[in-house]
Design goal:
Layout: H1 8-15, H2 43-58, H3 62-74, H4 79-88, H5 91-97, H6 104-112, E1 116-118, E2 121-122, E3 135-138, H7 146-153, E4 164-168, E5 171-174, H8 189-196
Antiparallel strand pairs: 1-2, 1-3, 3-5, 4-5
Length: 198
């Protein structure tokens, strides 16, 4: 299985996003403190940067991202907004958004190890697309582990998007599909559409 092993702080700085978007509060890069790109970025460069930004945030590789784009193109509505909605509905992202994991990378690993259930059934596929009404919870077997016991006892402050609802500390429900205004990082999705439609 392919895995993205890029350094978080360095990549965030290159793409112009905050490490907080990735779930990291204290990561910074001290390399080349005042350095800036000398050349003006062209149209293709801007389009490529926007695509790489979304791929990096959600931990998606090119082949899968292309499949999401093709699926978004066939859906009704704006392709760019459909694309962002699809990647936001991934199970690993929903687990992260519910506060059941501290980062998307951690959420992906915990989903791979079958620590979560969707509507009572174990799911170990991070790219599983959730639907409205789905209930995501920590599996009964995993609730006894140290990690989830600590999560149940602590009360972490999680800013939930309006399309999710938390039932208790270890479960949540999808009450609507994510909309464009639920995306909490700067992205110009029309540039991704322009790049793929060439």
């Amino acid at each position: 299985m392919a895995k993205n092993m890029q350094p978080i702080a360095k990549r965030c700085r290159a793409l112009g996003i905050s490490p907080a978007v990735m779930g990291y509060a204290k990561k910074t890069s001290h390399r080349n403190p005042g350095g800036k790109m000398r050349r003006k970025q062209g149209e293709y460069g801007m389009q490529l940067t926007e695509k790489q930004k979304v791929k990096f945030i959600y931990g998606i590789l090119e082949k899968q991202f292309r499949m999401y784009y093709e699926k978004a193109e066939k859906m009704e509505g704006k392709t760019g907004e459909n694309l962002l909605s699809l990647v936001e509905r991934r199970l690993d992202n929903v687990v992260f958004r519910l506060g059941l994991a501290s980062t998307r990378r951690e959420a992906r690993e915990l989903v791979n190890h079958a620590h979560y259930t969707v509507n009572g059934k174990k799911v170990n596929i991070p790219s599983y697309l959730i639907k409205v009404g789905d209930v995501i919870a920590v599996s009964d077997k995993s609730k006894d582990t140290t990690r989830f016991k600590a999560l149940a006892e602590a009360d972490p402050v999680t800013l939930l998007p309006k399309w999710l609802e938390k039932d208790d500390k270890l479960s949540g429900k999808v009450i609507a599909l994510p909309q464009r205004d639920d995306i909490d990082y700067p992205v110009e999705e029309h540039l991704i559409v322009e790049l793929y439609s060439k």
